[in-house]
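ugh ok fine here u go
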Amino acid sequence: MTNISQYQRPGRLALAGAVFLALAATGVTAGEHAHGADETFACDCPEGLEIVSAPWVRMMPPGMGSTAAYLTLANHTDEDVELVRGESPVAGVTELHDHVQDDAGVMRMREVEAITIPAGGKTALEPGGLHVMLIDLHEPLERDQRVSVTLETAAGETAGFEATVRDGGGSRHGHGSGHHGH
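structure:
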């Protein structure tokens, strides 16, 4: 797999081209079906790791400096896979987050050290739960824009994909620029 250091904020076009070539070489295309009824989506992923829901990024109002990316990952290996960091050319900082309830019963967003995809299982990154936080956006994102994201595993392998910017719907927990009180 490619070391994440090779993705030092390349232009979106260059990264998209690299992902396309890698997928073409392996024969992976969006919409392939594997492992039952799960639909898979384009991903330059380690062997046995697949994206099984359409990756998306929440559209935020103008002036908001951060947003989040969501997707569901399936692990078809015999060992847990831990995601330990992320990167995106659209953000100054990319972190792995979760919403946790504090002692007062209030849901708070917190950075996590890792997100585990269990052996033979799936992990959903979704509003109000685990997600990839894109902080210090370089410019406002636009509806239907494709955003490149790369996640790194504890083993040093990378999973690169593109997520589409769309409206987030009625989540109970927003992602704004004031979240960063870790």
